[in-house]
């Protein structure tokens, strides 16, 4: 379970970090090197989820979507300095509950 969580976090940071660098390049007129680095990181994001042990692509990506929401809220708070409100935290909590059900519910 810890490996699955670590891989979800790593994939999330790669997607958000890569996207952020591309955003900086195109929207904030940063150097082309931001775009290149962001693009390379986004390719790594595409690879990282394949290391999960779950057998279903759909389940892995659906669960990852919930993790991504939580990481995006945290990124906005810590990097962009936009404080999440009660409803942001409530939504993130609901997402993590949903991810947990999808990945670790007993199936028979």
Q: What is the share of helical residues?
A: over 70%
User: Multimeric state of these chains?
Assistant: single chain
The helix/strand class is mainly alpha
SSE order: HHHH
Please characterize this protein's 3D structure.
The protein is mostly helical. Helix content is 77%, strand content 0%. The protein has helices spanning 2-27, 32-47, 57-78, 86-104. Helix 1 (2-27) packs antiparallel against helix 2. The two termini are 19 Å apart.
Set down the secondary structure blueprint.
Elements: H1 2-27, H2 32-47, H3 57-78, H4 86-104
Which keywords apply here?
about 110 residues
In short:
The protein is an all-alpha fold and 108 residues long. It contains four helices and no strands.
């Amino acid at each position: 379970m810890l490996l699955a969580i670590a891989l979800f976090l790593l994939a999330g940071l790669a997607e958000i970090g890569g996207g952020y660098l591309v955003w900086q390049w195109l929207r904030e007129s940063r150097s082309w090197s931001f775009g290149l680095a962001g693009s390379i990181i986004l390719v790594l994001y595409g690879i990282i989820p394949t290391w999960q042990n779950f057998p279903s692509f759909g389940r892995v990506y659906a669960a990852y979507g919930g993790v991504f929401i939580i990481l995006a809220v945290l990124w906005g708070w810590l990097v962009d300095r936009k404080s999440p409100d009660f409803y942001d935290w409530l939504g993130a909590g609901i997402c993590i509950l949903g991810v947990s059900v999808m990945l670790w519910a007993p199936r028979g």
